Amino acid sequence: MKRIVNLLVLSFVLVSCSTDENNGDDEIMMVNTEEVKAMVTDGEWKITFYADSDVEETSNYVGYVFTFNPDGTLGATNGSTSLSGAWSITESENSNNDDGESDVDFNVFFASPDIFEELADDWDILKYTNSKIELWDTSVDDGSTDYLTFEKI
Predict the structure, then answer these.
(1) pLDDT tens digit at each of 153 positions of the chain
(2) Which of 65, 86, 87, 62 is nearest to 76 (CA)?
(3) Which of 49, 106, 127, 128 could form a disulfide with 133 if both were Cys (CB 3.0 to 4.6 A apart)?
(4) In contact, 66 and 74? CB cutoff 8 Å
């Protein structure tokens, strides 16, 4: 009986010490930049989540369709309004990670209007699949964190 209790306790400890908790660093180091470029340039995307300093603002982008073109241009349209921007993926030795490894930035740029200027940043890739890319950025100024998720339409 004592063995069973010890195994249960050990199992609980192992499960509670899971490395599934995500601080973003593990995913950043495993990003295949060519794979991400091929993925985002294939099809149209929409924003399914955007939080600016922990304030959820996804509704600002409802109805907009985003197109990431291979030449680095970025389009956003909602049928009546079309906006142009730019995007790129860069590897930076100027990492925010404590381990000194390089990180991958998903850069988005819009000059206007204001709600699209909020998207302009050098986002870190939290994780991605063929139909979804989750991005995050921590402000150097105040330590707040922004999140941005694109999903393929």
Answers:
(1) 545 433 443 344 333 343 333 444 343 347 889 999 999 999 999 999 999 998 999 999 999 999 999 999 999 999 999 999 999 999 876 545 444 445 889 999 999 999 999 999 999 999 999 999 999 998 888 889 999 999 999
(2) 65
(3) 128
(4) yes
